[in-house]
Amino acid sequence: MDTLIVKCKSTKKPLVVAGCVPQGSRDLRELKRVSVVRVQQIDRVVEVFEVTLKGHEVLALTARQSMPVGIWEAIILIIKSLVERIINVVADGVKEIWISSEDTGAYGHDIGVNLPILLKAIVAQLPSDRNTMF
């Protein structure tokens, strides 16, 4: 991503970098003089583009207090109580669940579990009618 950012900056056009990489690497030298949108602020990306096109740099890095859960889709950040969150959103009628983090593959290394254990625990909570996509 660093190489791509440098290449894009060389065009001298406004640049917005969005997602988990800039979120986890705020001090990255290549992120100087570009607008940055973290995952939790992705709904503001159009607003950030508009401001950036006017010549301003935007850092949309502050986390939201909570993320609204839609009836059809939920994006859930990996946290300790993830399985409980899955149970709650399924009970609310959510039909599609995504899990997201800066490094999903490293999940659980700090607490003595791993990603397959997490995924099996989540799948065990999904409705047996197979109407919920994970």
From TrEMBL:
Single Gene Ontology MF annotation: tRNA (N(6)-L-threonylcarbamoyladenosine(37)-C(2))-methylthiotransferase activity
GO cellular component: endoplasmic reticulum
Organism superkingdom: Eukaryota
Keyword set includes Transferase: yes
Keywords for this protein: Transferase
Protein known as: MTTase N-terminal domain-containing protein
Organism: Kingdonia uniflora
